[in-house]
Amino acid sequence: MTTHPRPAGPSISAAALDLFRKVSTATLTTQMFKRGFRNVYVRRATRLTITATGNLVGPAFTMRYIPAREDLDHLGVFADPEHPQRKGVETVPPGSVLVADCRGEDGVASNGEILTTRLWKRGVAGFVSDGPVRDSHVIAKLPFPVYCAGGAPPLNLVRHHAVDLNIPIGCGGVPVYPGDIIVGDEEGVVVIPLERAEEVAVDAWEQEQLEAFVLERIRNGAALPGTYPPSDSTRAAYEEWRRKQ
Amino acid sequence: MTTHPRPAGPSISAAALDLFRKVSTATLTTQMFKRGFRNVYVRRATRLTITATGNLVGPAFTMRYIPAREDLDHLGVFADPEHPQRKGVETVPPGSVLVADCRGEDGVASNGEILTTRLWKRGVAGFVSDGPVRDSHVIAKLPFPVYCAGGAPPLNLVRHHAVDLNIPIGCGGVPVYPGDIIVGDEEGVVVIPLERAEEVAVDAWEQEQLEAFVLERIRNGAALPGTYPPSDSTRAAYEEWRRKQ
Amino acid sequence: MTTHPRPAGPSISAAALDLFRKVSTATLTTQMFKRGFRNVYVRRATRLTITATGNLVGPAFTMRYIPAREDLDHLGVFADPEHPQRKGVETVPPGSVLVADCRGEDGVASNGEILTTRLWKRGVAGFVSDGPVRDSHVIAKLPFPVYCAGGAPPLNLVRHHAVDLNIPIGCGGVPVYPGDIIVGDEEGVVVIPLERAEEVAVDAWEQEQLEAFVLERIRNGAALPGTYPPSDSTRAAYEEWRRKQ
Amino acid sequence: MTTHPRPAGPSISAAALDLFRKVSTATLTTQMFKRGFRNVYVRRATRLTITATGNLVGPAFTMRYIPAREDLDHLGVFADPEHPQRKGVETVPPGSVLVADCRGEDGVASNGEILTTRLWKRGVAGFVSDGPVRDSHVIAKLPFPVYCAGGAPPLNLVRHHAVDLNIPIGCGGVPVYPGDIIVGDEEGVVVIPLERAEEVAVDAWEQEQLEAFVLERIRNGAALPGTYPPSDSTRAAYEEWRRKQ
Amino acid sequence: MTTHPRPAGPSISAAALDLFRKVSTATLTTQMFKRGFRNVYVRRATRLTITATGNLVGPAFTMRYIPAREDLDHLGVFADPEHPQRKGVETVPPGSVLVADCRGEDGVASNGEILTTRLWKRGVAGFVSDGPVRDSHVIAKLPFPVYCAGGAPPLNLVRHHAVDLNIPIGCGGVPVYPGDIIVGDEEGVVVIPLERAEEVAVDAWEQEQLEAFVLERIRNGAALPGTYPPSDSTRAAYEEWRRKQ
Amino acid sequence: MTTHPRPAGPSISAAALDLFRKVSTATLTTQMFKRGFRNVYVRRATRLTITATGNLVGPAFTMRYIPAREDLDHLGVFADPEHPQRKGVETVPPGSVLVADCRGEDGVASNGEILTTRLWKRGVAGFVSDGPVRDSHVIAKLPFPVYCAGGAPPLNLVRHHAVDLNIPIGCGGVPVYPGDIIVGDEEGVVVIPLERAEEVAVDAWEQEQLEAFVLERIRNGAALPGTYPPSDSTRAAYEEWRRKQ
Questions:
Q1: How far is CA A128 from CA A43, A163, F173, F212, in A?
Q2: Looking at domain F38-192, what is its CATH homologous superfamily?
Q3: Structure pTM?
Q4: Does E18 touch chain D (CB under 8 A)?
Q5: What is the pLDDT of residues E188-226, one digit of tens each?
Q6: Beta E174-176 vs E169-171: how paired, if at all?
Q7: Fewer Cβ in 10 A, N or C end of chain F?
């Protein structure tokens, strides 16, 4: 019961991953809302890194923290290479996103400069946490996307016990299943269930084409009625415009 | 009972509006405090836009959200040009400030790029919300002042139902009556009741002249006692200084 | 009972203060954790000032606020040079850090431009508060380190009554005793009890030397096991490396 | 735009109201969940009255509060019989439930003994608020159901301005449209949109019959599998049992 | 500066204290509001004791907690009879109310059975805290009024350091100066500044006489207009009724 | 990695379990504090059941919830007897305590009447949750101890997805490992790590004997100094008293 293998079926194409790199998280929430999903936005995880541009995209690899226990969570634990926090950093696959469930705890860090550097060097896609990180001013300048609840100096052991890896978790109030597609832009992070990711990527891309056209009209002074949402004639004009591109 | 016409009397001069463009919200809270008003600062509405400089000043035009209901709040509603959110964007008078009551809800957006662009194009003075906006990184670069609770990708329909326009609301814990003067600077937004706005503008301006003089003295090494607040002799020196300017 | 003289014994050397200027608050929380202290990080006090670089370091001089009372807390109180807020600004020793207990109140300011300028001119080391300041956009550019809960225009009298100086307080959830060493870097502020400060400074410095070596290895592609924490051989290599420097 | 007439269509039968008197709010949330409604439970409104037994059932008549303004909200306002709070108490129809939007404000009362007594005497069905009431220990003993956030002595004017009546509001995070069916039991309050109320009442009643049968089996030692939810054979036994009653 | 002697002037008569025993905290907030005081109700301090009836009335004697420090706050500290928590319990004058500033900390106790029993035996009037107590189920049955944030088992040392006695504090968001009159009824606790207590007691009593008359009329079916607030004729009838009593 | 077998060693004697039935949670927090544990009290889990007397004592069997996902968490899931919530209720061993991690979510239930009845019938010792239950007024009268965050009608599927059983969790901010000893009294719930449970039970019992003696003296008018904590002579008197019993 404590292993949660995802049914072998769902996977995602490189083309879809590429589309996720081009669309905004705002657009993705609209596509998910259309499908009945209201809860896909990770609270408290804002983009820390300023040098990493473009979207963070990749499948989730999860790490779970529970509250620390004074006798178990001392500095000696890290000597064990099987310690879940350290093992997580070493085993998250390149291209995946390490997602940490910090229970929204805002006074201690879930990561620091050395581990983040290791994640970057291993080719991991990024790090997402609903808690802060430490060494945040240094991490902010790494070429590695980190989304978190800002910075806080205290080490994780003050309040956290890393307990297991790659099982379903909550992060920022959102369910995250291993393999779900994580997308982060300048505004935040959304979680797309793997089963729906392929179609969502395509429809989000389509939506953004239409909205680019709409925005151009609004910038040129068009009023909302008939333009947004588009009337039949606006939509026809869009199709025409699209064909030309 | 649901229309709240403000008695015809109060209005505000262009000169007073101009003074509001020059004083800080900090000064305005002091002037309001002198008059017995302790609650004029809008919580959770920080300045998002980085390119818009100078104060946001204008009369309030309000929009009210209540919690969404799953059967009423679907994407189809925007096809109706009478939908309050869309109608609000099209009918807020140029020069006014659209103020949205989001009940402090921090997980969904009350506005996005297309609507904000339309507000800008219509000559609206600015947008104030106690909730986030979406497309926040793009809106941050528009030449249009937006004050809000940061950015969040989800569309308003996830939690909000726009229900009516231009009736008294609460925003960030502050009462906002249609026509009240909204002033926003780099620090935040305050609401000045229209009835008091004329005199408050003048007295705030006077206060800032005196404080500029005081600050100069403090910068030159003066101690607080006798300088801030000014003793009679400091005040006399100020009057002298003022006369010379 | 209301004076809290610290036993004459503990003091701190200039050398230790200098080490505190070079280490991070993250490192300091680790050193304190080793000694059984879990609660040294001041919540809600982020660095406001952008031009002040380097660590804020100095002994704490405290100011305590209680909730305002409408009849006692009016603008007239500042005419009294014995008013604790004003007296605090004038009497905090140069080189010390003024630390304000704002009970986490986030809607009013605990300081503003004029008082902060006076602190700077008096040679005070910095200002730390678990509440906001007003005139925050101006203070942000002063060459004087301020850590606080961002900016809020309302004057302190709206909610605060400055009541006494230099007695033990809580700030951001942390106990602060007069004379404790305050250290602030880009990430935040920690409080080091004076009795432990000397040894903590030395050990923090040592820790950072080792971590610099570790980080270099991680940047060069080393895996965590054996490197962080360092195995005996890594530690030997470090000692070698250290000797060469 | 500020009047929100409900389309004339929907109404509710006396039989359905009677069913609502017999079912639990827990059951109603299940029926609403089946229909895609996740947000029907009013937060922070617990049953205060201990002598009123049975469910509170009736159509909603709403009252909206916004934050108080010091110059508008003084004791003199109640001399005006058109003051919305007083007018609301006098005009809510007998059999209806007065529902107050207090924005979750927990430090002031939205009602007191005299007004509550008047509501009771007028034959109003009950009072629901997401804020506290004053004189709570007396109101608790009235034969009139009150659901609220406990007791708090301060009068509403300290923080509230009653602003309008019988327009859509939020209460405890839930949308409440005038005429929606309010149901309160010992556990709390739910809001059933009028359009769905008839069918929900019937299905809730049906659900409770089945669960009574299931519960009897569980009490007699049956295991969950096959019993809850019922297998085909359990359901057949239930139909048999039902027929006999 | 750290002793806060109240000017010798204000005191309170036994007659006023007696009136405070007869009026409700709700009435007192109205009287204070009339005088410009909006913040007199202690948040988070509900009546725990079920056997103690009648109002708690007495002058405040204060105790202040700051956050615990791991090296200072161990079980050994209580061996010192000068420890402020223990000294406070032994020195609060009979007839006074011990008021503890717990910074709203809700996870540890500010008092327990043994100390509360000692307070009771010493003739202290009662205990008020904005934090919980431990042994709450036993204390609830003592003939000694306790107002607090419910029960929590952990001892105060887990998060609190008792630091000083009888200086101005905040409790539940309200300023409490030594000697202020504390009044608690079944609904909660209010703080009446000593300077205003005499007149507030008298006016509160008068208000309650009038409201008793009003309530009788409302119970007999009178409508609010003309009755509450009373018209001239209602007020005349009240004067008549009063004379007869 | 997702199974967390506790090392075979630790167990607990029937005698120790019996002592836990006689001591208070307050006493247990003191014993744990002595051993360096500050975080053993489960927040938000108050005793709901009024008919169940005496302490809840038993080893923890855990259930973990993550946020619901709209497509996965529908009413149909309960048809699967392997659904973790249902399987948990059927497999928690008699005598154990089912402990649910609800992430502090306060708007939905983690249990209801039918499942709680089944737990009771199966001989389970009790149920602990940091979220509410539904049917709370009925459950309150069952002869089965339930500790939770009060009552809330909505079913768990509205926000919860039961995901796994008997792995380490957090509950009310406290780490709970399967097999840890849960003790609940009228005040709340504490978690005693299995490894320390035997000695803690004995020492807690001893502490309560001494405190009974101390309390008797305090009730008879003794002052705190010398009595609490006991001086050598008080302790000698206690030993004498103890011998006689």
A1: 11, 17, 22, 52
A2: Ribonuclease E inhibitor RraA/RraA-like (3.50.30.40)
A3: 0.97
A4: no
A5: 999 999 999 999 999 999 999 999 999 999 999 999 999
A6: antiparallel
A7: C
